[in-house]
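Let us work through a complete example step by step.
Step 1: write down the sequence.
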Amino acid sequence: MREADLPTKYSETQEEARVSSTYEDPRRKGCAQDAAWPRPRAAISLIWRVRGHGSFKELSRARARRDGALWLRFVAGDGQDPPQIAYALGRKFGNAPKRNRLRRRMRAVLNDLASDLEPGGRYLFGANPSAGDYSATDLRASLVRLVGSAGK
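Step 2: predict the structure and record it as C-alpha cells.
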C-alpha cells in the first residue's frame, strides 16, 4: 500500500479521546481553581538547637559534669529564649545507627524534662560508648541528675 492510498482525515464516526477527571490537571485554564491551602503554622518548640560557632566555643570552655557514661557542658543564658540543646556523639561511640538511637532516646527524655531546663541555657550532652547499653530508667535517671547539676 502506498502513502497516497491512506486517508488524511479521520472518519466522522470516531469520538474524541476523553480524560478521566482524576487525571485532569487542575492548573490548566478552564478548570475551577481551588483556594490555596493554608500554610501550616510553625511548631512551637520548647527546646531549640544550639547554633553558631561562638555558642559551641563557649560550650567547649565550660566545665564538663559527668554521671556514669554521660556528660554535660552547660552555659547559662539570658532567660528570654527557650533552652538550647546539642549532642556530641562521635565515631568512637559507634556507627551511625547506634549514635542516632541514643540521640533519639536522649531527646525523648529531655523533651519530658523541658520544664527543668534553664531558659536561655545552652546544653551540650555527650556519652561514652557504654551509654548505649543503658536501660530507659538508667538513661532517664542519669539525665535528670545532669540537668539538676547544671545550674550549680
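Step 3: interpret the result. The longest strand covers residues 70-75.
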